[in-house]
Amino acid sequence: MSAVKAASLNPSAFVRDFSEAAAAQGFRLERFGEIANCPLVAATKRPRGMRPRIYLSTGIHGDEPAGPHALLELLKAGVFDARATWFLCPLLNPAGFLRATRENAEGLDLNRDYKDLRSAEIRAHGAWLQRQPNFDVTLCLHEDWESAGFYLYELNPANQPTLADAMIAAVRKVCPIETAAIIDGRESAEPGIIRPIADPLLREMWPEAIYLRAHHTTLSYTLESPSALTLDVRVAALRAAVEAALAEFTRTARTMAG
């Protein structure tokens, strides 16, 4: 089942399409590595003036194609406009997509490698991240093969205005929300929302969100679309969540500034 759905994304073709769309939208493309003859790329756009810095990533698991597709659709739709400075990493695990596996070619789960840095992919990504400024908010797009509905993780140690409620409300119009009391082995704070302990020192292995929390941001979200649904619905759910998060972040930032 995983291989069938993951086959909907060819990494080299996707990176080419993404790069063309990013250039058309005024982004600067940076190549920070190459895996399986496919470049690792980041796209940045820095409008003039002071703007919030927003980071989005996806494609770290090779059996989760909805995230890359959603990011490309958002890019083509012009969502990444002048409201912010944007940092986009669209495909962090090309070899995983070639193999239709969660892990990379060496069998490593890249989303558990941000502390030990065993993989070439995460060493390259980490080096790129270290060259960037801190982010005001980060969004990491994923899928979950075991979930019956959409859910998200929120890391918000500074107790900033939450974006989680707006995302859940928007996604509820697209697909079910996960209502289990225990989601992915963790207790849910509300339907579809997990607020785990964010202290990096308590984690033996670091996913991307924990690394970002430790070094780059105080407001981080990991979005999980249910893989049991069709690809178009999973993509729509992630798109709805991202657009709602950006709208709510913009609204609260203006309110606080006023």
Distance linking N and C termini: 50 Å
Query: Could you tell me the number of beta strands?
Result: 10
The general outline is globular
| CATH topology value | Aminopeptidase
**At CATH's second level, what is the architecture?**
3-Layer(aba) Sandwich
Question: What does this protein structure show overall?
Answer:
The protein is of the alpha/beta class and 258 residues long. 35% of the residues lie in helices and 20% in strands. The protein has an 8-stranded mixed β-sheet with strand order 1-2-4-3-5-10-6-9, with helices on both faces. The longest helix is centred in the C-terminal third of the chain and has 27 residues, at 231-257. Mean pLDDT is 93; it is low at 1-7.
Keywords:
258 residues, alpha/beta, Aminopeptidase, 8-stranded mixed beta sheet, two-stranded antiparallel ribbon, 8 helices, 20% strand, globular, disordered N terminus
SSE topology sketch:
Blueprint: H1 2-6, H2 11-24, E1 28-35, E2 38-45, E3 53-57, H3 66-76, E4 85-89, H4 94-99, H5 120-130, E5 137-144, E6 151-155, H6 164-171, E7 182-183, E8 186-187, E9 193-194, H7 208-215, E10 220-226, H8 231-257
Parallel strand pairs: 3-4, 3-5, 5-10, 6-9
Antiparallel strand pairs: 1-2, 2-4, 6-10, 7-8
